[in-house]
Amino acid sequence: MPIYLKTVLKIIFALFLAFFALKLLHYHVSLINFPYSATLREGAMMTSTDALVHGLDPYDMSLQPNFMNPYGIIYPLLVWPLAKIFGTTLLVHRIVSAFSIIACCILVFLVLRKMSVPLLLNLWAILMLYASWLYQGTSTPSVDPGGTAMLFLLLTVFTPCFLRYSYKSLLLSALFAILAFYTKPYGVLGAPIICSYLFLFVSKKKSLAYGCLLLAFMTISVLFINQIFPAYFDNCFFTSLNMTHAWSRLDHLYFQIDLYSKIYAWTLILLGIFIAWQGFKIYKTKDFTILKNDDIRLVSWAILWACFVLYTSLGRHTGATLWYFFQLLSPFLLIAAAWVFSQNLLIDMIGVPFLIINLFTITSKLDYTLFNKNEPNWLAASTLLSQYPHVLASPILVPLLVEENKQVYDNGQTEYFLSGADRPSWMQGFLKTDYRGYIQMAKFFRDIEHKVENKDFEIILLPPSLLPLGIDEAIHKNYKMVGNLVVLAPQDVRPYDITVWVPQ
Predict the structure, then answer these.
(1) Using CA atoms, how far apart are residues 413 and 66, in angstroms rounded to an integer?
(2) How would you list the strands of the sheet with 494-503, edge to edge?
C-alpha cells in the first residue's frame, strides 16, 4: 500500500477514534451528574458508605437487613473519605466508579504498549472496553463495585507480567487478589489465573509459593473480617452461594453469548480470520516464535478462565445481562484482538473500516435523551420525600433518602438477606445455620408492620406490588392510594412504577 494512502487511513481512523471518545465521555459525564437513580439498586452501596460516614459498622447485625450489601467493603471504604467531605451522594460514588473504569483502561493501554501494539489499535481496544463498561443495561458505571473489582483483578493478573514474575510481584498480586475478593467476590478470579499460569508456564516453585501466600492472606483476612464485620460473610458469600440455583439458567447463558457475539461481531470475525491466517503462516514456515510470546500466552490463558467461569456460573445469572461478559471477558479479548491485528499488515487495508463499524455498533444505543426524559416525575418524587420525615420508599428512591439522612428500610438488597443465614448442605457438618439472620428478619418485618398499623409513615412510595416487604394487607387496611408516578432509570433503560399512599 502506498505510504500516502496508509497515512490517510491512519488520519481517518484517528478522527473516528476521537469522535467515539468524545461521544463516550459525553455519555459518562451525563451519567455521573444525573441527580437520581440510574439503576434500581444504586442505593444499596450508598447505605454501607453512609454507615461508615456516621461511624457505624455497615455489617453490624443490628443494621440488617436494611443495610444489606452482598458485594464487599472495599468500594464503600474508597468512597468514604469523599463522602465524609462532600456527603453520601450519588455523585461521589459514581466518581469512584469512573476512576476505577478509567484506571482499568489505562492499565490495559500499558499492557498493549508493553506488547508493542501500535497506538491507534491500542486506543481502539481501550475505547471498545470503555464502551462495553458504559453499555446501557449494565451497572458498571453506576454506584457499583464491579469496575473497582476489575481494577484489582487486572492488577492481580498483570503485575507479575510487568515485573517478570518476581517474588515481589507475586506478593503484590496476592494482595490485589484479596482486595478484589473484598470488593466483589468474583474479582478473586485473577488469583487462579495467575497461580495456574505460573504452574504451567513459569515455575512450579513460584506457583506453590504464590498459592501458599494467597492461602495465608485469605485465612488471616477471613478471620479478621469475620471478627469486625459480624454479618459480612452472611451478606457477601453465603447469600450468593445459596441463591445461585434461583438465578442460574442455561438459556440465559446462550442468550448472552448470542447478544455478546452480535455486539462484538466484526472484532470476532476479524480475529478469526487473522488467527486462521497466522496459523496457516506458521504451518507453512514452521516458525513457532510467535506462539512463545509470554504476554499473549497469559492473556489467552485468562480468556480461557473467563470463558470457563462464565459458562459454569456467572454467565447463567439471570439478573445480570452482559455485565459479567463485559467485565471478565472483554479486557482480555480486546487485548488479544489488538495484538493479533498488530501482527497482520492486512489490517490497514481491510480491517480498519470494520473496527470503526464495531465501535459504531457498541455505541449506537447510548441514549443521552434518557437523562432528561421523565424529569418532572423524578422531581415530584424528590419533593414528596423531602416534605416528610418518615417515609417508606422503593429501592429506586433510596439514594434520595440517603442524601437527606432519612431512614432506609429496603435498600434494594434487603429481600436477599435471609438467604445468607443458611449454610449449604455440604457445609452443615462444620458450619451451622446463622439464626441471627432469622431473628433480624423477623424483627424487621414486625417493625415495618407495626409502623404501618400505627400509621407512623406519613407517606409510602412503593411499587404496585408493595413487595418485597410483605405488608401489602396492612398497607391496604391503613393507607389509601392517592396517585402513582413512573420514574425512568436511564442506565437500566427502563421505567419503574411507584404508587403513592397516605394514612386513611
Answers:
(1) 8
(2) 391-393, 459-462, 494-503, 479-489
Is residue 428 pLDDT above 80, yes or no?
A: no
What is the full DSSP assignment across 143-180? S-SHHHHHHHHHHHHHHHHHTTT-HHHHHHHHHHHHHH
Give me the sign of the Cα torsion angle 146, 152, 155, 157.
negative
Alpha-carbon distance values, 419 to 79, 134, 318, 457 (Å): 27, 31, 17, 28
Rounded to an integer, the average pLDDT of 189-199 is: 98
- Cα 279 to Cα 294: distance, rounded to the nearest angstrom: 18
Instruction: Please write the tens of the pLDDT for every residue from 202-252.
Output: 999 999 999 999 999 999 999 999 999 999 999 999 999 999 888 999 999
What are the DSSP E strand ranges found in 216-324?
none
CA dihedral 353, 355, 357, 363 (to 10 degrees): -150
Beta strands in 298-432 (DSSP E): 391-393
Residues 6 or more apart whose CB falls under 8 angstroms from that of 87 comprise: 403
Closest CA to 328 of 104, 143, 141, 76: 104
3-state SS, one letter per residue, for 9-34: HHHHHHHHHHHHHHHHHHHHHHHHHC
Place of cell 418518615: 390
Taking the C-alpha atoms of residue 36 and residue 381, their distance in angstroms, rounded to an integer, is: 10
Determine contact, residues 497/464, Cβ cutoff 8 Å.
yes
**CB-CB contact of 491 with 146 (8 Å):** no
Give the number of residues written for the chain.
504
Between CA 63 and CA 444 the distance in angstroms is: 10
pLDDT tens per residue, range 303-340: 999 999 999 999 999 999 999 999 999 999 999 999 99
Residue 257 CB coordination number (10 Å): 15
Amino acid identity for residue 249 in this structure? R
Question: What cell numbers appear for 487 in the block?
Answer: 420514574
Please classify residue 231 by burial: count the beta carbons closer than 10 Å to its beta carbon, then call 0-12 exposed, 13-18 middle and 19+ buried.
buried
Q: How far apart are CA 90 and CA 43, in angstroms?
A: 8
| pTM flag (> 0.90) | yes
Q: Are strands 459-462 and 494-503 parallel, antiparallel or unpaired?
A: antiparallel
| Residue of 172, 215, 169, 165 lying closest to 192 (CA atoms) | 215
Residues 6+ apart with CB under 8 A from 413: 41, 44, 68, 69, 70
Question: In the structure grid, which three cell numbers stand for residue 441, read together?
Answer: 428478619
- What are the tens digits of pLDDT across the range 269-299? 999 988 888 788 787 887 777 777 899 999 9
Which residues lie across from 483 on neighbouring strands?
Answer: 500
